[in-house]
Amino acid sequence: MNKSVKKYIKVLLNFVVLLFIGIYIYQIFVSNQDQLMGYTVKIKVKYLVVSFFMLIAVFFSQSIGWYFLTKSLFGKLPFWKTNIVWYKSLIGKYVPGKIWMYIGRGSFYFKLEDGKFKYTSCVILEGIFNLLSAIVVAVISFTMISLNQLDYIVYISIFVMIALFIVIHPNVMNFFISQINKIPKVDFPLLRVKYNQVLLLLLFWIASTVFGGGALFYLSLATGIEISNHLILYFAAVHALASFIGLIAFFSPGGIGVRESIYIILLEKHISSVDATLTSIFSRIWITVIELFLILCFWTLSLLQRERTK
Fold first, then answer.
1. Which end of the chain is more exposed for a tag (fewer CB within 10 A), N or C?
2. Alpha-carbon distance 63 to 70, whole Å?
3. Half-sphere exposure (CA, 13 Å, Cβ side) for 275?
4. CA distance 278 to 287
5. Residue 41 scores a pLDDT above 90
6. What's the mean pLDDT in 220-239?
């Protein structure tokens, strides 16, 4: 099978998946049409402000965590330059394939010594931290809230969580790296960090996950949805799982449609289908606006820095 045929098959599969997601969301709208037509949104500014600052904290936690992660492998790195590169690369999330985000970010690191292999290691670790933080928050949340229908998810999550905590131990990772390095022309650097340092790095992603759930929770309150305060951790778990699945859904730019479907499926266990659907839509708009705002801010900082160095 030649490359062009494979490409068309991949595009077709992506289209089919997105089509099914679109049909699923459309059916929710149709089945709740009467309620949606009579729905009025009353914005509560104080909750919207809280949601805004929590979303800012999400991005700051991830970008600062990324800085310390890269620093642990590359050594001394310029803090502001690293953060500017990280934020500018976010625009790549909205291009199908997601790889553009990592290529954009990698353009800075590829110029450094052993940049290609060290950067790849950082991206892999970031992916593991994203998954592990999602599972940790989900397990804590689902354990605290009695959800009999989700018991099997909790058990699977605990198993995966324990496995990942073992995998991120430097000795275990170095073993796998040494095996991979046996491949010709592959030379990944061994990790020279302690386990407690890895766990401290993980805290940045766990904090980001909790802040993200809080932002989603207060956004729902801001739009007038009545929710019990004890569900904030559940919202954090929902946000974590939806964001991670949306991130690895390479067929969907920015996880559009995928993240919203996960939100609806899990949130409607505690709020109505209408509220869950509207929350998913509002969150997409809200997160995109703030993300683009931060990209613009750091892109401007990049231009100002360039002007100063001239």
1. C
2. 11
3. 18
4. 14
5. no
6. 82
Give the pLDDT mean for 210-230: 86
3-class secondary-structure state, position 38: coil
CA distance 238 to 255: 15
136 closest CA partner among 39, 205, 225, 219: 205
Find tokens 């900082």 and name the residue: 301
- Chain segment 150-198, per-residue pLDDT in tens: 566 667 777 888 888 898 898 998 898 888 888 887 778 888 888 999 9
The answer to whether 256 and 232 are in contact (CB under 8 A) is no
Q: Please report which helix (H) or strand (E) contains residue 164, including its range.
A: helix 151-167
Q: How far are the Cα atoms of 144, 156, 160, 173, 239 from residue 245, in angstroms, in the given order?
A: 23, 16, 15, 24, 10
Report the alpha-carbon distance of residue 176 to residue 180 in Å, rounded: 6
Check if the beta carbon of residue 189 is closer than 8 Å to that of residue 121: yes
Quote the tokens at residue 196. Answer: 């407690």
Contact 154, 226 (CB under 8 A): no
Task: Choose between 195 and 17: higher pLDDT.
Answer: 195
- Residue identified by tokens 């290691």 is 121
So what's the pLDDT on residue 75? 84
Q: Please state the pTM of the whole predicted model.
A: 0.80
C-beta separation of 220 from 209 below 8 A: no
